[in-house]
Amino acid sequence: MRFLWTFFWGFLLIHMASYVVNSMTGGHYDFMVASTVAVIAIVVIFLIAEVIPNEPVAKHDHH
Q1: What confidence tens digit (pLDDT) does each residue in 8-48 have?
Q2: Coil, helix or strand for 31?
Q3: What pTM was computed for the model?
Q4: Which uninterrupted H or E stretch holds 13?
């Protein structure tokens, strides 16, 4: 379920950012370019989430 929500919100937010940036720079909004960037960014987010360890770091008490 977390993958579905990550994909949904990532896709939506990247499309929104693409629209805003293109509007501010005077360009035109291209759905396919924004979709490609969204998919690549979401895959990178999934890979980063898999690389980061979940277990807590052992606390070493050095004095």
Answers
A1: 999 999 999 999 999 999 999 999 999 999 999 999 999 99
A2: helix
A3: 0.75
A4: helix 2-25
CA end-to-end distance (rounded Å), the chain: 45
Written as six digits, the tokens of 36 are: 């490609």
Helix (H, G, I), strand (E, B) or coil at 26: coil
- For residue 61, the 8-state DSSP code is -
The C-alpha atoms of residue 23 and residue 20 are separated, in whole angstroms, by 5
Position 1, amino acid: M
- Minimal CA–CA distance to 38: which of 1, 5, 8? 8
CB 32 within 8 A of CB 42: no
